[in-house]
């Protein structure tokens, strides 16, 4: 009986040593993975984060540029609507027909005074080349 207990204890100790070896192997693997993360992955993540900050700055600049273009387009749309209401939005064929018809003098005076009131002032437009200097260069 005593021999059986010793064999059983010996087998349990061998099993326990095997488990301890596996545990130590897992600890070594975790240590090497941790050192790899600290030495390699974190610097790579930091580099990518720095690159992303630059991309975010470019996105912010692009958003501001799009807003500026949007306000410029909105201003031009307002001017077009105002010009259409002031001058009328007739197709060119109707305008030609109306010009060939003789107009009484009292109508021509009012239209000439109307034209003097609405002098055309060209809008101040942006130049794309001011914002994208690479467009000034030849493509090839």
Write up what this structure looks like.
It is a single chain. By secondary structure, the protein is mainly alpha-helical. 80% of the residues lie in helices and 0% in strands. It has one domain (1-98). The chain has 4 helices and no strands. The longest helix is centred in the N-terminal third of the chain and has 86 residues, at 2-87.
Q: Secondary-structure element sequence?
A: HHHH
* Beta-strand residue fraction: under 5%
Mean pLDDT: 79
Termini Cα gap = 95 Å
Helix content: over 70%
| Number of strand segments | 0
Category from helices, strands and their pairing: mainly alpha
Radius of gyration: 41 Å
Mind describing the biggest β-sheet? none
Low-confidence stretches: 106-116
Q: What is the domain total for the residues?
A: 1
Protein name: Biogenesis of lysosome-related organelles complex 1 subunit 4
Organism: Leptosomus discolor
Essential attributes:
single chain, 140 residues, mainly alpha, 4 helices, 0% strand, rod-shaped
